[in-house]
Amino acid sequence: MIKTIDWRDDTVVMIDQKRLPREERYLTCKTHGEVIAAINDLTIRGAPAIGIAAAMGVALGMLRSPVTSPSVFRETFDDLCRQFRKTRPTARNLFWAVERMKAYFSRIFPPDAPFDAAFLRRSLADEARRILNEDIAINRRIGGFGAALIQSGDAVLTHCNAGALATGGYGTALGVIRAAVGQGKAIHVFVDETRPVLQGARLTAWELMQEHIPATLIADNMAGYLMFRGKIDKIIVGADRIAKNGDTANKIGTYTLAVLAQAHGIPFYVAAPTSTIDLETPAGDAIPIEERAPEEVTSWGGCRVAPEGIAVFNPAFDVTAGRYITAIITEAGVAMPPYDESIPAMAGQTRLNEGC
Ligand code: MRU
Predict the structure, then answer these.
(1) For 149-354, which CATH superfamily applies?
(2) Rounded CA separation 249/59 (Å)
(3) What angle, rounded to 10 degrees, do the helices at 47-64 and 117-147 form?
C-alpha cells in the first residue's frame, strides 16, 4: 500500500507529492515547522492527509518543546494547535484533527493532574498515530459502501486526487474504485488532470497505474464532451468540507462537473469520512475557500506561461450545492437527499459509535 504519511523514530515521514510522479522521495520532518511548511506547499495535501499531518505535527512540536513548567507546556500545546489551524482554511479534517488532539490533551492532562511530560508526549504521539490508522479503516468502510453503487463495466470520472495520497491510505473516491475493482468489477477510470496544480495528472494517474487499474487521463475541459458522447457512467469525487445541508467544497472544477452530470443524467457521488462534515456550517456559502498564489496559474514547473502583470484569480476549491449530488458516501453509510436531514443524522450516528 502507498505510505502517504507515517510517524517513524519520532519524526514525521511523508511522501513528497510535489515530486510525484517523476520521483518517489520521502521527506522526514524533524520539527513541527517543517510539517507546517509541507502542508502549505502541498508536499502533503488532501483533506484527511492534512488532518493527520496536523495531528502528528502537534505531537512532534510537543516532543521537541523544552520542559519548563506545566503552564508553559499547556501554552506550547495551545500555540501549536493555533499554528496548524492557520495552514489551510478549507479542509474540515484539519480542524477536526486539531480539535481531537485538544480533547485528548484535556483528558490526559486535566487541571489538577500530576505533570509527567514524557507520558504526555508519548500519549500525544500515540493519539496522532491512532488518527492515521483509523483513517485507513474508515476509508475501507467508505469503499465497501461505495462499491455497491458501482457496476462492472462502468466508466467512472474522478477529479483531483482523493486517493491513498490524500488520506492515511486507500483513499475515499479512489477507495470506492479500489473496493469495486477488488470485488472483481471491471472499471475504467477517467482522470481529470485538475488544473492548476495537476493532482489528477500527477497523483491519481500515478496511483491507478501502480495498481494496474485501467485509466485514461483527460484535460479538465474535455469532461463535458465525454459526458455528451455517453462515455461516463458515474462521477465520484472526494470532499474538503461538507456543510450541514450537504453542500460540498472540493477541488476547483468539481462544481462544473456536477452541473454537467445533472444535465446529462449521470450520477454524481461524493465520498468522504464524517470528519469532513461540518455541522456548524449550515450551507456552502459559509465555507471558507482558500485562494492560492497566482504563480500556480501563471507558471508550470518553474516556467512562466502567462504574460507578466496579468491579474489572476486562484481559488483552490469550489462549492457544489447538495441538489447536484446523488449521494454522499461515508464510513457510516450512504446519505441520500434531503441532506439537511441525512447529513446531521449520519454525523450523529458516528459520534454514537465513537462513544461506544
Ligand atoms: O488542494 P488539495 O490537493 O489539498 O485538494 C484536495 C482535494 O480537493 C481533494 O479532493 C479532497 O481533499 C478530498 S481528499 C480525500
Answers:
(1) Translation initiation factor eif-2b; domain 2 (3.40.50.10470)
(2) 28
(3) 170
Strand order in the sheet with 215-218: 215-218, 188-192, 155-158, 234-237, 268-271, 327-330, 333-335
The stretch 213-229 carries a mean pLDDT of 98
pTM: 0.97
- Determine whether 51 is exposed, middle or buried from the number of CB atoms within 10 Å of its CB (0-12, 13-18, 19+): buried
For residue 172, give the nearest of 87, 83, 238 by alpha carbon: 238
CA of 91 to the centre of ligand 1 (A): 8
Mean pLDDT for 25-37 is 98
Query: What is the location of CATH 1.20.120.420 in the chain?
Result: 5-139
Confidence of residue 56 (pLDDT cuts 50, 70, 90): very high
Residues near 197 by Cβ (< 8 Å), separated by ≥ 6? 42, 296
Torsion sign across C-alpha atoms 68, 33, 275, 20: negative
Q: What is the pLDDT of residue 302?
A: 86
Cα separations in angstroms, 161 against 23, 41, 103, 173, 313: 17, 16, 30, 8, 22
Atom of ligand 1 nearest to the CA of 163: 15
Active site residues: 240
Residue 199 Cα: closest atom of ligand 1: 3
Compute, in angstroms, the gap from residue 69 CA to the centroid of ligand 1: 39
CA of 90 to the centre of ligand 1 (A): 10
Query: Where in the chain are all domains bearing CATH 3.40.50.10470?
Result: 149-354
List ligand 1's pocket residues with C-beta within 6 A: 45-48, 91, 160, 162, 166-167, 172, 199, 238-240, 250-251, 316
Using alpha carbons, list the distances in angstroms from residue 5 to 13, 95, 224.
6, 18, 35
Q: What is the CATH number of domain 5-139?
A: 1.20.120.420
Question: Average per-residue pLDDT in the chain?
Answer: 96
What are the cell numbers at 257? Answer: 462537473
Q: What is the largest CA-CA distance in the chain?
A: 68
